[in-house]
């Protein structure tokens, strides 16, 4: 006599599959992450497809010096016309009491570009004013995302949310750059030019 056997099978339906995809488009920098960090920290974190991210820093020291950043970003993503539930979050006490330069690119979605750029020069001539003209000449960047007017790339519904916990980044001293995106076809950048006199000690 054959033993009794029971077989349980569960077929994933469209809703459960969509829920799984939603999980893949959730991006979190956890609580207490990089707390107390010092110096230069660069973070690129992405969930989704065809995202381009860069953190670029250039520094120079001398009587005659120049820093230059040239960056070009472009991405193409033939996103299917399906709902997108995207979230990008930074948890509590992340980056607390840090100091220096922190450059963060965080994205949840598809076909996005993100760029952080910092140039710094130490010269005996003293502090120079960074006008729009000198900034554009020193830091050249271009970011191209998807055209929102293209119906082939349109997203059909869903939710997008970004957030930084109120307790994050408390006591941070220095330069904080943050590109935080949830969605598709976005381009964001932070560019900073620093010029200061060299220390005499």
TrEMBL record:
Region called Disordered, residue ranges: 135-168
Name of the protein: Adhesin
Superkingdom of the source species: Bacteria
Compositional bias (Polar residues): 135-153
Species this protein is from: Dyella psychrodurans
């Amino acid at each position: 006599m054959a033993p009794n056997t029971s077989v349980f099978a569960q077929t994933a339906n469209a809703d459960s599959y969509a829920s799984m995809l939603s999980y893949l488009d959730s991006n979190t920098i956890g609580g207490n992450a990089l707390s107390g960090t010092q110096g230069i920290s660069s973070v690129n974190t992405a969930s989704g497809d065809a995202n381009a991210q860069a953190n670029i820093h250039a520094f120079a020291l001398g009587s005659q010096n120049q820093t230059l950043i040239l960056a070009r970003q472009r991405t193409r993503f033939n996103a299917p016309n399906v709902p997108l539930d995207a979230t990008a979050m930074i948890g509590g006490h992340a980056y607390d009491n840090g100091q220096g330069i922190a450059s963060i690119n965080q994205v949840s979605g598809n076909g996005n570009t993100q760029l952080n750029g910092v140039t710094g020069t130490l010269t005996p001539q003293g502090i120079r004013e960074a006008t729009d003209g000198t900034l554009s000449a020193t830091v050249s960047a271009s970011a191209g995302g998807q055209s929102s007017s293209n119906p082939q790339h349109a997203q059909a519904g869903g939710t997008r949310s970004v957030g930084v916990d109120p307790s994050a980044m408390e006591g941070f001293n220095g330069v904080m750059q943050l590109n935080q995106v949830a969605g598709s076809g976005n381009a964001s950048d932070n560019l900073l030019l620093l010029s200061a006199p060299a220390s005499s000690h």
